[in-house]
Amino acid sequence: MSSAVARYVCSQGPEQSTDICFSGDWTLDAPAPAFTTLASELEQQQNRTLRCQVDDNLEWDSALIAFLLQCHNYCLTRELTLDSSALPDGARKLLALSTAVASLEIAAAEPKSLLERLNPSAPLLRLWHSLEAALEFIGSVSLALGALMRGRANTRLTDFLNFLFEAGPKALGIITLTSFLVGMILAYLGAAQLAQFGAQVYVADLVTVGMLREMGALMTAVVMAGRTGAAYAAQLGTMQTREEIDAIVTLGISPVEFLVLPRLLALIVIMPLLVIYANFIGILGGALVASGMGVSLTQFLEETRTVITLTQLNVGLGKALVFGTLIALAGCYSGINCGRSSAAVGEATTNAVVTAIVFLIVADAAINIALQNMGI
């Protein structure tokens, strides 16, 4: 243990400032004075500026930074100015790094009064604030995409490839099951009605067009919203509770570029491929049902060949791109704006799934109406 002592001397400086000169051994091995003593001296002087100075023989480590951080917080709460220009270069940089992210003050939520709960404008205000936050997030994503196109984004290729694998090959199992069953359901419903007119062969048209234009993209998107969108929200929400996102911001890295962009791009790239696979599996399921209702596999495939067009395929792929973007944005937005508790992570995950599914349905209806008006 060191025998040296950490010392400071307060004196009156020019222009209503207090000079504090640090000397001695400001290391973890030496006893340090309590900050409350310095706070009492500063209260008596009542100056507007606190200037930090050091002795030529000063020895320091993180103990000095911890004391300076208390000085910084003291000045911050009392609206004083802390002048650290005379500190050693290393100490000044460490102090700037430790104060780069504002400390979080978590206050207990006060119960709302009955009048506040019955206020008719409260839901509109909450909706307005949510809309502002969503637009700000979309703007940040747009700026990050622009930085990526210029080659200046902090986005790693390894992260993109990892999320691509998580959202693609690992999802094939559930996509196969749901698409096969959806194709069978479409075939059952269509064959039951077409059998009344002796037109069972047209069940191939129903299944193929239904999968290519609608059910393939929509069901895949719903599955990915519950699987990948929820995972995005849980991952980012957990990082938020552990203050990992704050650490990324402290390092000068944009969390949107580093965390959101790889997830967004991975889902945008993989969704069309998953939809093509889902279309194939759904048509295969419809063919299996049709073969048990008097339609041979040859008839089904021939009728399918006549109805498949590039337009029908492009409609589904276009929806896949839109749906993938919405799922990624909903999941990442809920995770980035998560609270600081485990309960908040659960709420963020739920919000991500619910928001994504609502947006999917609204977007699907809007796209269908637009295509109908354009005659596609």
UniProtKB/TrEMBL annotation:
Annotated InterPro entries: Permease_MalE
Keywords assigned by UniProt, alphabetized: Membrane, Transmembrane, Transmembrane helix
Pfam families xref list: MlaE
Highest taxon above the source species: Bacteria
Membrane spanning stretches: 171-195, 215-235, 247-270, 276-301, 313-336, 348-371
PANTHER family (alphabetical): ABC TRANSPORTER PERMEASE, ABC TRANSPORTER PERMEASE PROTEIN-RELATED
Protein name (record): ABC transporter permease
Organism of this sequence: Candidatus Litorirhabdus singularis
Source organism phylogeny: Bacteria, Pseudomonadati, Pseudomonadota, Gammaproteobacteria, Cellvibrionales
